[in-house]
Amino acid sequence: MLRVENLSAWYGEARVLRDVALRVDAGEVVTLVGRNGAGKTTVLRCLMGLHAGQRGTVELDGRDIGRLPTHRRARLGLGWVPDDRGSYASLSVAEQLTLPPVLRPRSSAERTGLAWSLERVFEAFPVLYQRRSVPASTLSGGEQQMLALARVLRMGARLLLCDEPTEGLSPLLVTQVGDILRQAKRHGVTVLLVEQNLRFATEVADRHYLLAQGAVAEALDNSAVRSRERELLAYLGI
Ligand SMILES: Nc1ncnc2c1ncn2[C@@H]1O[C@H](COP(=O)(O)OP(=O)(O)OP(=O)(O)O)[C@@H](O)[C@H]1O
Ligand SMILES: [Mg+2]
């Protein structure tokens, strides 16, 4: 579904990605792990078309999307869940899940039935149902993360790009995010997940890429991550 080759990125003169290559097949959950500053967020920003200084190939379903603006990529089914959670803080939770730009009439997502209904969102995220009438600015960090995830599912994203969705969450909310990702997967959603929690990563994902200094250092399966957990945790500095 997603194929990335020779992806390089710069901040000014500084090169932060070096020929990153990775692929995510339809229906997979794949993680990107790496130390702070390894370039994980930059990879996601490049895929979403949010990073100006980039070069390389980004293909979605065999189509080169590397030069498309962000909104076109979103329309093709890419859904970005940023680590800063960026929400319209003064709107209530329910408003954020119903008002434009979340709902785009006649979008391809609605035609294909991928866009989650409000009912389904509230079923999957009971905490958002409980908090549906309060302004999003009063949500905890974990609840805001849930809301950010819910919004891209409402938009009918087929490929979620999630940047550290479990960061700062209580164990209960981490479990809920895991359930949601597994549920999304069952509904045909594909996920590329930046994740530092290795145990969580092996519970939800099929495969992993280790990013080191802006390059893919290794591709790992779940058994490799489990058997090398100590070494990897030490390397990641967690
Ligand atoms: N706005 C910016 N201007 C200049 N350099 C930046 C900027 N944002 C990130 N960088 C640098 O680019 C490199 C990659 O950053 P990036 O945020 O992609 O890493 P990351 O793996 O997501 O890190 P973290 O685990 O801290 O989220 C780092 O060396 C960082 O210092
Ligand atoms: Mg980051």
TrEMBL record:
Q: Where is the ABC transporter domain?
A: 2-238
Query: Is the DNA-binding keyword given for this protein?
Result: no
Q: Name one Pfam family in it.
A: ABC_tran
Keyword Transport attached: yes
Among CDD domains, the record links this protein to: ABC_TM1139_LivF_branched
Which GO molecular function, any one, fits this protein according to its record? ATP binding
Q: Which residues form a coiled coil?
A: none
Keywords (A to Z) from UniProt: Amino-acid transport, ATP-binding, Nucleotide-binding, Transport
For this chain, the family text in UniProt reads: Belongs to the ABC transporter superfamily.
| Protein name (database record) | ABC transporter ATP-binding protein
Give the source species. Answer: Plantactinospora mayteni
